[in-house]
Amino acid sequence: MTKRSTAHDTFVIDRAFAFKRELVYAAWTSAEAKSQWFVGPSGWELQHRELDFRVGGRERVKGRRPDGTTSSFDARYYEIVPNERIVYVYEMHTDDVRISISLATIEFEERKGGTGLIITEQGVFLDGYDDVRGRERGTHGLIDQLEQALQRRVAGP
């Protein structure tokens, strides 16, 4: 058995996008839009996705990594102010092991030339399975994928 431990930490990511705030916000609001960027790294294979984007609603995403393990994201939405902020709490699992629980706040700011996206995450990382540096790195990767999805959407077919 792994030694039981908790590690609490916070990170903030502030990214500027050359897209309207409404477009950046919309990328978070439906399963179809989120499936364009909220996916695992190369080789990750989606097994399940659902999104009920409303206060009290849930989001679940589960996928298989190339090594055969599964990762799952299970969130509940607590605050949604269209085009301004989203607040949710989520758990991450590897296979059947809960590895973290986090409070995430996503803010959308109008800025000259586009939108500021500010992500603040406060997490408890359980039993040494993950840590804030790994989670922040992964979140940067997701935001890179978000930017690419927005670029594809603006460019059109």
Topology readout:
Blueprint: E1 6-17, H1 21-26, H2 31-34, E2 45-51, E3 58-64, E4 70-81, E5 85-94, E6 97-111, E7 114-126, H3 132-155
Structural write-up:
- This protein is α+β, with helices and mostly antiparallel strands.
- It has one domain (about 5-40, about 80-155): START domain (Alpha-D-Glucose-1,6-Bisphosphate, Chain A, domain 4, 2-Layer Sandwich).
- The chain has 3 helices and 7 strands, in the order βααββββββα.
- The protein has helices spanning about 20-25, 30-35, 130-155, and strands at about 5-15, 45-50, 60-65, 70-80, 85-95, 95-110, 115-125.
- Strand 6 and strand 7 (about 115-125) form a beta hairpin.
- The termini are far apart.
- The model has no long low-confidence stretch (mean pLDDT about 95).
**Mind describing the biggest β-sheet?**
7 strands, antiparallel
Query: Hey, roughly how much beta strand do the residues contain?
Result: over 45%
Q: What is the C-alpha radius of gyration, as a whole number of Å?
A: 16 Å
Strand/helix succession: EHHEEEEEEH
CATH superfamily: START domain
Uncertain residue segments: none
Supply the number of helical segments.
Answer: 3
End-to-end gap: 51 Å
Tell me which CATH architecture applies here. Answer: 2-Layer Sandwich
